[in-house]
Amino acid sequence: MSRYSAMFERLAANDEAAFGAFLMLGDPDLATSATLLDSLGEGGADMIEVGIPFTDPIADGPVIQAAANRALGSGTSVEDCFRQLAEFRRRHPSIPVGILTYANILAARGRSQFCLDAAAAGVDSLLIADVPALEIEPYREAARRAAIDLVMIAAPNTPGQTLTRIARICSGYTYCVARMGVTGLQDRPALDHCETIAELARLGAPPPIVGFGIATPDQVREAISAGAAGVISGSAIVELVTQPDASARIAHFVAAMKEATRSSCNAEFAEGDRHHAR
Questions:
Q1: By the 8 A CB rule, do 260 and 217 touch?
Q2: Which pick of 48, 200, 215, 245 has the fewest CB atoms within 10 Å?
Q3: Is pLDDT at 77 greater than 70 in this prediction?
Q4: How confident is the model at residue 5, as a pLDDT?
Q5: What is the CATH number of the domain that holds 66?
Q6: Which is catalytic among the residues 60, 80, 117, 239?
Q7: Helices (H), the chain
Q8: Cut 0.70: pTM above it
Q9: Phi, psi of 196 (to 5 degrees)
Q10: Is 42 annotated in the active site?
Q11: Could you say which of 16, 49, 222, 239 is catalytic?
């Protein structure tokens, strides 16, 4: 059983949804990011997504772009990232870890070699943000050979034919974006993803995890009430990296967001019980 499958099984048994947390590796430097990664686990994150610093992260908003620049400024390399992930895996053997990155990063190392190195470092999944579904097959094959999941992005405006392709190819989980555009903080997710989530379920896609703009417990509850199996929060966490006592702040933030995945599910089950009682 994969770490993602084990995670979803455990959460379902406890009537919880998943909380995923994102950090940029090497931000603001490798030693600090190692400590911050541990803080995600201490806060109760069910799954972790990491970025590899890149000069042109076109899916990312200003907060995560700034994190990539800080990491690059400190000299963080792809090799450093794999080394840090391997060290994290030794400390945290069961937490699923995924990489969100871009095609150029894979091209520089070679698709197959990147996937093999990721697997050797204990990585569970790969999401390549700038590769569309119609061009994903070579990446899918490289991931398959390395025995890691290939996560794909679905949005409320993704055409039905593309959703069908995503459901067939994607594994681990399905990344459902909550809005158009790039990552970043906002008052509330801008698009209604209920229909997308329902269609993915009908197509047999992996569990839907909502990201892009998830920054408050209320947004966690909103996403779960729309049918999401969980959420991922990135910019809200990355914004804390440069603040005093960043490790403690991040652990506290993660704990609050994780708690919302419990209260959301409990509220839904309670409402269902009231409905059946009527």
A1: yes
A2: 245
A3: yes
A4: 98
A5: 3.20.20.70
A6: 60
A7: 3-13, 30-43, 62-73, 78-91, 103-109, 111-120, 137-146, 160-169, 194-203, 217-225, 235-238, 246-277
A8: yes
A9: -60, -45
A10: no
A11: 49
